């Protein structure tokens, strides 16, 4: 028991002992006041200490967050048993040993009513402590999850920015290599290439910071880039575009076609006798870039920026994968066409808001349940007291106690039982289905 708990129990002891002395004691003497304080302290420290030990043990064995059901069930059973035993223990010392009443009447008459009221007060306080422990555990868990997801999101964003920043110098370096080759081979073409390259590079600067662009924009850029390649290679390279109109308004990763076209040129030789044929087409929600395989020997090891860059960027944006197919005669890359533009990367950040909302909703439901339970523990003993005090011939208190108790049981089943898991499973299924579509 920590220092804060000891101080709280001491204040409860002082308040309870003083209240009983002021409102219920006939002989108001200093001696009686201290006796009341000692008796109140016996009740407070015994019941609070017993509940504290029980809660600490259950918290070590079962988590409020991971084992909510079993923790709640064991908490209710343990609370009932522990509080009944502790109240009987304290009342026996108070009524039998201190006040000198007959032990045979311990469960009847005024002592029986005192037992019942004290048990309900103890259960009420225990219910409040259980509710506070549950809410604190869920708040702590939710905060940790939010912090963890934010760290993951920041890491993914940093990685995504790093990948995008590769594109700018990479494109410029390769374009300058092509230009230097043309200057020696054909100065006139080199001039046209320089003019066209400025237009293309403007597109690179505009689009490289975007997560997605439309297929139509990417195709227009790719066609311009193909014109430059045809200027350099003439009839050694041919391009065939067959993309469905319905796919033009969908989305792809920016500069993906340019990187893949460049990949085709870099890894294959092209001559007039053996031209390189490159096809760009769409099929079943995917964009294909295919070329006949005329693999050249690499003089130096490739930097691996092109294809790996696209694969990594898609992995950060969607669960759909980039597929690569290679045979003896062709090389094909399939990139997903996304039907919905993303406003944020498909990282665990999207799960953060959902997890926080679900946790908040569950905490709200449990606060309502515990508030109802606390009201039940307060009102029912009061009704029993009124019934036994003024109309003991007919025990009408059973009707509100049973009706309200049934409502509490149904509410507990809804919160801790099958329905909550079923709802969460259905929500998760819907989210998984939507993520798969995207």
Overview of this protein structure:
The protein is built from twelve helices and seven strands. The strands form two sheets. Strands 2-4-5-7-6 form a five-stranded mixed beta sheet, covered by helices on one side. The chain has helices at residues 3-24, 30-61, 68-98, 109-165, 167-185, 187-207, 215-233, 256-267, 306-317, 349-390, 398-416, 418-437, and strands at residues 213-214, 237-242, 251-252, 276-283, 286-292, 323-326, 330-336. The chain is 70% helix and 8% strand. The chain is rod-shaped, with a radius of gyration of 38 Å. The two termini are 53 Å apart. By secondary structure, the chain is α+β, with helices and mostly antiparallel strands.
List the helices and strands and how they pair.
Blueprint: H1 3-24, H2 30-61, H3 68-98, H4 109-165, H5 167-185, H6 187-207, E1 213-214, H7 215-233, E2 237-242, E3 251-252, H8 256-267, E4 276-283, E5 286-292, H9 306-317, E6 323-326, E7 330-336, H10 349-390, H11 398-416, H12 418-437
Parallel strand pairs: 2-4
Antiparallel strand pairs: 1-3, 4-5, 5-7, 6-7
Helix pairs in contact: 1-2, 2-3, 3-4, 4-9, 4-10, 5-6, 6-7, 7-8, 10-11, 11-12
List keywords for this structure.
five-stranded mixed beta sheet, two-stranded antiparallel sheet, 12 helices, 70% helix
Compact summary:
The chain contains 12 helices and 7 strands. The longest helix is centred in the N-terminal third of the chain and has 57 residues. The relative contact order is 0.08.
CA radius of gyration is: 38 Å
Give the low-pLDDT segments.
343-350
Mean pLDDT: 77
| Ends distance | 53 Å
Structural class determined from secondary elements: alpha+beta
Name the helicity range. 55-70%
Q: What is the overall number of helices? A: 12
Biggest sheet, spatial arrangement of strands: 2-4-5-7-6
Q: Secondary-structure element sequence? A: HHHHHHEHEEHEEHEEHHH
What is the strand tally?
7
Biggest β-sheet description: 5 strands, mixed
Question: In percent, how much strand structure appears in the residues?
Answer: 5-15%
- Shape verdict: rod-shaped
């Amino acid at each position: 028991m920590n220092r804060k708990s000891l101080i709280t129990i001491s204040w409860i002891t002082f308040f309870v002992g003083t209240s009983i002395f002021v409102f219920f004691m006939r002989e108001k003497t200093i001696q009686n006041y201290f006796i009341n304080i000692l008796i109140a302290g016996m009740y407070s420290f015994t019941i609070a200490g017993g509940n504290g030990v029980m809660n600490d043990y259950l918290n070590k064995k079962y988590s409020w967050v991971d084992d909510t059901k079993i923790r709640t069930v064991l908490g209710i059973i343990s609370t009932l048993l522990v509080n009944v035993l502790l109240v009987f223990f304290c009342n026996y010392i108070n009524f039998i040993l201190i006040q000198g009443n007959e032990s045979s009447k311990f469960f009847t008459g005024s002592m029986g009513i005192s037992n019942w009221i004290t048990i309900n007060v103890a259960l009420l306080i225990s219910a409040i402590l259980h509710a506070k422990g549950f809410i604190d555990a869920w708040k702590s868990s939710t905060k940790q999850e939010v912090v963890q997801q934010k760290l993951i999101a920041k890491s993914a964003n940093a990685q995504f920015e790093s990948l995008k920043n590769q594109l700018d110098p990479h494109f410029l370096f390769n374009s300058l290599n092509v230009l230097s080759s043309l200057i020696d081979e054909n100065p006139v073409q080199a001039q046209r290439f320089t003019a066209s390259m400025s237009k293309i590079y403007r597109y690179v600067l505009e689009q490289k910071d975007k997560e997605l662009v439309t297929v139509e924009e990417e195709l227009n850029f790719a066609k311009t880039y193909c014109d430059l390649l045809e200027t350099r290679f003439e009839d050694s390279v041919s391009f065939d575009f067959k993309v469905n109109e319905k796919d033009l308004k969908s989305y792809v990763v920016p500069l993906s076609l340019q990187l893949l076209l460049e990949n085709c040129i870099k890894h294959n030789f092209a001559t007039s006798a053996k031209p390189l044929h490159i096809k760009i087409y769409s099929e079943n929600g995917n964009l294909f870039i295919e070329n006949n395989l005329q693999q050249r020997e690499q003089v130096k090891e490739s930097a691996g920026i092109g294809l790996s860059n696209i694969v990594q960027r898609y992995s950060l944006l969607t669960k759909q994968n980039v597929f690569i197919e290679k045979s003896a005669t062709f090389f094909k890359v399939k990139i997903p066409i996304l039907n919905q533009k993303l406003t944020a990367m498909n990282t665990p950040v999207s799960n953060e808001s959902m997890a926080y909302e679900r946790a908040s909703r569950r905490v709200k439901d449990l606060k309502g349940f515990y508030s109802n339970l606390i009201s039940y523990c307060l009102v029912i003993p009061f009704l029993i007291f009124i019934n036994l005090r003024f109309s003991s011939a007919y025990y009408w208190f059973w009707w509100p106690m049973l009706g309200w108790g049934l409502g509490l049981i149904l509410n507990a089943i809804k919160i801790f039982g099958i329905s909550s898991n079923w709802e969460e499973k259905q929500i998760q299924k819907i989210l998984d289905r939507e993520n798969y579509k995207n």
